[in-house]
Specification:
- The longest helix has about 40 residues.
- The protein is an all-alpha fold.
- It is rod-shaped.
- It has two helices and no strands.
Length: about 100
Amino acid sequence: MNKSTRIILVIVLYLLAALLGLNSVGTLVSLKYEVDEGYVFLDMNKSMSKVEREQSIEKLNTKRRMLNRDIFLSTGGALLCLASATALIFKRKRPKLHTKT
C-alpha cells in the first residue's frame, strides 16, 4: 500500500468514526424522547384499556430493542474504525536510518 492511499484511508476511517459517534448520540436522543417519554405518557393516560396499554408497551419495547441494537452497532463501528486507523498509522513501514559506525 503506497503512502497516499494509506493517508486517504486513515482520514476516511477517522471521519467515519466521527460520523458513527454522532449517529450513536442521535440514537441515544431518540431513545430518550421516543421511548422513555412514551412510557411516561402511557402512564399518564388513564383512559386506555388494558389491551391497548399492553399493545403500546410492546411497541415501545420493540422500538427500545431496535434503538439499543443501533446504538451498539454504531458505537462498535466507531471503535473499530478508530482502532483500524490507529493500527494503520503505527504499523506503517518506516525508512531505516543509515548510521555510520
